[in-house]
């Protein structure tokens, strides 16, 4: 059985920083990629935007709106991924969900964590 547990998030003023963490544990044989999606206020559960992802080899991708402000990195030995968020903007307010592509038919998801950026 696999668990994906997120930590971090919270309330921060615009221009501030936060770091999210996400750890996968359990019977993990392969870890292809991990990353983050987010759901903005008012959106449906299925309306999630890819924020950033990173492969086991360290290849990263970011949505345009966070490039230069967010950094994703991972610790393969710990099956953990981090999202360092700097220069936060009001529009970054969302529920952030971690995903893990562990070679199974479907991805594993974290529980979600609220990030609120205030003016």
Structure overview:
The mean pLDDT is 95. The protein has no helices and eleven strands. Strands 2, 4, 5, 6, 9, 10 and 11 form a seven-stranded mixed β-sheet that branches. A four-stranded antiparallel β-sheet has the order 1-3-8-7, with no helix packed on it. It is globular and about 45 Å long. The chain is an all-beta fold and 119 residues long.
Largest sheet: 7 strands, mixed
Q: List low-pLDDT spans.
A: none
Query: What percentage of the residues does DSSP assign to strands (E)?
Result: over 45%
Count all strands and give the number: 11
Q: Write down the oligomeric state.
A: single chain
Number of helices: 0
Radius of gyration over all CA atoms, rounded = 14 Å
Query: Average pLDDT across residues?
Result: 95
Tell me, briefly, the overall form. globular
Q: In a nutshell, what does this entry contain?
A:
By secondary structure, the chain is mostly beta strands.
Which key phrases capture this entry?
single chain, 119 residues, mainly beta, seven-stranded mixed beta sheet, four-stranded antiparallel beta sheet, 11 strands, 55% strand, globular
Topology:
Layout: E1 2-8, E2 10-13, E3 18-26, E4 33-39, E5 49-55, E6 60-62, E7 70-75, E8 80-85, E9 94-101, E10 108-109, E11 113-118
Parallel strand pairs: 2-11
Antiparallel strand pairs: 1-3, 3-8, 4-5, 4-9, 5-6, 7-8, 9-10, 9-11
């Amino acid at each position: 059985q696999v668990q994906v547990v997120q930590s971090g998030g919270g309330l921060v003023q615009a221009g501030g920083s936060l770091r999210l963490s996400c750890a996968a544990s359990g019977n993990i044989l392969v870890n292809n990629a991990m990353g983050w999606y987010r759901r903005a206020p008012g959106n449906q559960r299925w309306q999630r935007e890819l924020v950033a992802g990173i492969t086991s080899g360290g290849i990263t991708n970011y949505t345009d709106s966070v490039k230069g402000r967010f950094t994703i990195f991972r610790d393969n030995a710990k099956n953990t991924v981090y999202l360092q968020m700097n220069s936060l903007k009001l529009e970054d307010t969302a529920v952030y969900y971690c995903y893990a592509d562990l070679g199974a038919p479907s991805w594993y998801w974290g529980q979600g964590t609220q990030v609120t950026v205030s003016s």
